[in-house]
Design brief:
The structure is a single chain. The chain is α/β, with parallel strands linked by helices. It has two domains: 1-35 and 289-301, no CATH class; 36-279, TIM Barrel (Alpha-Beta Barrel), CATH 3.20.20.220. It is built from 13 helices and eight strands. Helix 1 (2-13) packs antiparallel against helix 11 (281-290) and helix 4 packs parallel to helix 5 (108-125).
Length: 312
């Protein structure tokens, strides 16, 4: 049922008419809970508040599937400028980047050049960088870029998706690098031949892979909003005697803030992903698909001006 609900949400919200309407009104209807805004200034203001509240922060400028080399270079420029702006405000942030935004679909050399430019800026700023994972058709290319760059940039990490059948083998291949791995359940609509469809099965696979990463000496960024699952992962870390130099919890801004607060109060390292940019809609739809109950929030805000004023 979860897979069906996800597929329905994706189909409905990807219709051109729905997209046009949501791009015009969606921020006021609830997307602003998850998206910091459209500018770097918006993202940095949110980041400053989260850092003051004891969170770590990762920033991402939304956009993917860049269609020309000039746009890919411009995306790299955006990240370089973002790091400079964060440094000028004494904000210690990391980055989460998508390789298709930097030219992965255009040309490998273009993508490598742009990614290196971002990584060089991050090295100068003392910032971590994680390569976000995209749909299954791009996993091989994404991991090839990561494996090529990781020896040059030891602060570079990559995201893996627990629901993909291939991920245990990917972990085995990457383990000798002792990499920084952000482990997520997975948000793209993938067929049964490619990914697990049952939510409980995905949760079991996630915990299994988290144990494997910890045992392999990797840094585990446990990215989830599932409180029960995170408690199990953190319990496994404690049983292994791991400190915050070996793991952290990652969550999206606006999702389960009470869980974030509780983890921070308990002394757990929590990094919050802050997203911004004009290309926010595809990302927001995947968040709706991950938790279709959020569609109800949009509908409540649509029919109730008071709900919009109160916010989620």
């Amino acid at each position: 049922m979860a897979a069906l609900a996800r597929a329905v949400v994706l189909k409905v919200f990807q219709r051109p008419g729905v997209r046009r309407w949501m791009e015009r009104h969606g921020m006021a209807l609830g997307a602003g809970r998850f998206v910091a805004g459209e500018t770097a200034g918006d993202a940095l203001r949110v980041a400053a508040g989260l850092l003051a509240a004891g969170r770590r922060v990762s920033l991402t400028h939304l956009g993917e599937y860049t269609s020309d080399a000039a746009a890919a270079r411009a995306a790299a420029d955006t990240y370089v400028d973002l790091l400079a702006a964060a440094r000028s405000r004494a904000l210690e942030v990391s980055l989460s980047i998508k390789l298709t935004q930097l030219g992965l679909d255009l040309d490998l050399d273009v993508c490598l050049e742009n990614t290196r430019r971002v990584l060089d800026a991050a090295a100068g700023a003392g910032a971590l960088v994680e390569i976000d994972m995209e749909d299954s058709a791009r996993v091989d290319a994404t991991l090839a870029v990561f494996q090529r760059l990781a020896p040059e940039y030891p602060f570079l990490g990559v995201c893996l998706q627990a629901y993909l059948h291939r991920t245990p083998d990917d972990i085995q291949r990457l383990a000798p690098l002792r990499p920084r791995i952000r482990l997520v359940k997975g948000a793209y609509a993938e067929p049964p031949s490619v990914a697990l469809q049952d939510r409980a099965a995905v949760t079991r696979r996630y915990l299994e892979l988290a144990r494997r990463l910890m045992d392999a000496g990797c840094f585990l960024a446990a990215a989830s909003h599932d409180g029960a699952l995170l408690r199990e992962v953190l319990g496994e870390a404690r049983r292994r005697g791991l400190g915050p130099d070996r793991y952290e919890v990652q969550m999206l801004r606006g999702i389960n803030p009470s869980l974030q607060e509780g983890l921070v109060a308990a002394g757990e390292p929590v990094r919050v992903l802050v997203v911004y940019g004009r290309e926010w809609y595809p990302w927001f739809v995947r968040r709706l698909a991950e938790r279709p109950a959020n569609v109800g929030m949009l509908l409540r805000n649509l029919v109730s001006p008071a709900a919009r004023r109160r916010g989620p």
